[in-house]
Amino acid sequence: MNVSRRLVQLAATLLTNPFAANFLDGRLYRGGLKNFCAPGLNCWSCPAAAFSCPIGALQTGSFYAAGYTLLVGLLLGRAVCGFLCPFGLFQELLNKIPSPKKFLPRPLTRVKYFVLITFVLILPAALPLSQPTFCEFICPAGTLEAGLPLIAAHEEFRRVLGSLFALKMFVLVAVIVACVVVHRFFCRVLCPLGAIYGLLNRYSFWQLKYSAQACVDCGRCKKVCPLDLDPTKEFASAECVRCGRCVDSCPSCALQQKVSAN
User: In sequence order, which residues have a C-beta less than 8 Å from that of residue 82 and are 6 or more positions away?
Assistant: First the structure.
C-alpha cells in the first residue's frame, strides 16, 4: 500500500499542478479549470496550479465550493488527505528527515476546528469583500506554493514586502520544523480542509473496516500508525487519513479498506 499510495500522491500533485513551466516567470494559469476546485489543499495563486483551492473558494461564500467539498468528503473522507493532497505529501516527506520524533497531544488536534470556524467561516463573512483571512494570515501552503515563487520571479513584489509576509514566513518555517518531528503536524493541528473531511470521515463511502472476530490482539496496527491511533478502537477516527499501514501490518486481515455505504 505504501508504494502505491506514494505513486497516487505524486500523480495527484502533478495532475493538479501541470503548469510547472510558469514558475520560471511567475505567471499564473487563469483558464477555465480555475473555476473548479482541487480536492486537496493547493493554492489558487501557485504558478503551476490548474484548479482553485476549496478553502480559498469557501472564504468567498461560494455555494459551489461548499457543495463540492461536502461531496468529496462524503465520498472519500480524509482519504483525500492521505492520497490526493499535495501539501499532505510535502508534510510526509518532511517527516522522513532524520530527527527525534515527537508525540502530538490529542487536544491539539481540535485546534483545526477553531481555525475552520474562525478564519474560514466567521471572519471572511464579517469582513468587507469576504476577505480570505485563512489564506492571508495562516496558510503555509500558499506561502510555499505561491508567495515564495511569485516573489522570486517579480522584483516589484519584493519591494513591498512587509510585516504580513514576515508573519506568513514565520508560520511556514514553524510548520516545516513541526512536520519534521511530528507526522503531518499541519494536517492534524491547523488544516481547515482536514477538519471538514475529518467530520465526514465516519460517514464517507471510503471506510476502514475492523473485524473483532478476526483480530488476534497483536498490537501491530497501533505500533505502525503514524497518527498515534489505535485502529482497533479508532477505525472511524476523524484523524485517520486511510494511509493503509495498519491494514498492511495486520496478520489476520482484521482491518480492511473498503468502499461501502454506511
Answer: 5, 88, 241, 242, 243, 244
Distance separating alpha carbons of residues 125 and 175, to the nearest angstrom: 27
Residue spans per domain, the chain = 2-201, 207-259
Contact residues for 214 (Cβ-Cβ < 8 A; gap 6+): 252, 253, 254
pLDDT in tens, 119-133: 999 999 898 777 899
Dist. CA 47–CA 49, nearest whole Å: 6
Q: Is 20 exposed, middle or buried (0-12, 13-18, 19+ CB in 10 A)?
A: exposed
pLDDT tens digits, 143-162: 999 999 999 999 988 888 99
Helix (H, G, I), strand (E, B) or coil at 18: coil
* Contact assessment for residue 32 and residue 47, using Cβ atoms and an 8 Å cutoff: no
Longest dimension (CA), the chain: 65
CA pseudo-torsion sign 232, 89, 107, 206? negative
Cβ neighbors of 122 (< 8 A, separation 6 or more) are none
Rounded to whole angstroms, how far apart are CA atoms 240 and 228?
Answer: 10
Domain 207-259 belongs in CATH node 1.25.40.390: no
C-alpha cell at 120: 474560514
